[in-house]
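User: Please fill in residues for this 277-position structure.
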């Protein structure tokens, strides 16, 4: 079934659901909420389903909708792709990165981030930091707005601005900066966002390759590429804010594979995302 048919089936089964609940039923987590937005809006505009409320909105079937036979939820959950045919080499990383950068959204957005960071390189002005947080959040789907009850934009700006020598340390690739941002105000773990914030500054602004990004795709698929790592171990690094251990692990694996292409960490992230998006 396509997304629209699956949404209709789930609403037939459960009656009323939020976008997050639909995404979790279809893909196994709520991080795929943006992936189903277009299908949801198409069904709403067509009158097939109705939307009520705001933050969150609730979706239910409209009258007169042809019901699609319901399949078991396990059939709609995202399954892992077989990665046994993926070869990690200088050539395949270069190829995947070139494809990602040539896309209509990622390439132009990456250029936009570069231009903005070059115009506003320092992290000493909370207003400037707020704009950069918003840009990286939107373009990388880190969903910070979903956690406003745990940390506000003002608080996060203060955290970043308050880190001693942050700009020099990011330029040098200090992994502890990621951990300090990730700890934020002590109420939320911003490990993934922090890795991206430091990575973009280090790479797009300073032309370095010291930081490895951690996101949902990498957390799920690294154990399928490397048998000496588990999702649980990655989660422990995240829970204890041990970014240095995670970053060192990626460095170690790239060394073992004899990956020497320039910006290999950035390209490896592109490779895993492109293969398993």
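Assistant: Residues filled in for all 277 positions:
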């Amino acid at each position: 079934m396509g997304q629209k048919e699956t949404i209709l089936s789930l609403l037939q089964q459960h009656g009323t659901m939020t976008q997050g609940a639909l995404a979790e039923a279809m893909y196994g987590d709520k991080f795929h909420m943006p992936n189903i937005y277009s299908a949801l809006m198409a069904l709403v505009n067509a009158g097939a389903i109705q939307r009520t409320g705001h933050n969150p909105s609730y979706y239910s079937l409209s009258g007169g909708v042809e019901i699609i036979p319901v399949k078991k939820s396990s059939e709609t959950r995202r399954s892992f792709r077989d990665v046994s045919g993926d070869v990690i080499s200088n050539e395949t990383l270069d190829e995947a990165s070139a494809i990602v950068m040539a896309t209509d959204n990622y390439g132009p957005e990456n250029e936009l981030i570069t231009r903005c960071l070059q115009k506003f390189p320092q992290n000493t002005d909370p207003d400037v930091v707020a704009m950069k947080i918003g840009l990286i959040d939107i373009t990388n789907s880190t969903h910070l707005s979903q956690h406003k009850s745990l940390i506000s934009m003002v608080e996060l700006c203060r955290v970043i601005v308050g880190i001693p020598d942050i700009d020099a340390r990011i330029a040098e690739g200090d992994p502890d900066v990621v951990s300090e941002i990730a700890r934020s105000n002590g109420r939320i773990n911003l490990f993934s966002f922090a890795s991206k914030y430091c990575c973009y500054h280090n790479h797009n602004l300073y032309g370095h390759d010291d930081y490895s990004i951690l996101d949902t795709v990498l957390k799920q698929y690294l154990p399928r590429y490397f048998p000496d790592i588990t999702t649980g171990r990655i989660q422990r690094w995240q829970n204890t804010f041990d970014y240095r251990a995670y970053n060192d692990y990626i460095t170690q694996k790239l060394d073992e594979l004899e990956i020497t292409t320039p910006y290999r960490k950035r390209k490896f992230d592109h490779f895993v995302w492109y293969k398993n998006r």
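For context: The domain at 3-76 is CATH 1.10.10.10 (Arc Repressor Mutant, subunit A).
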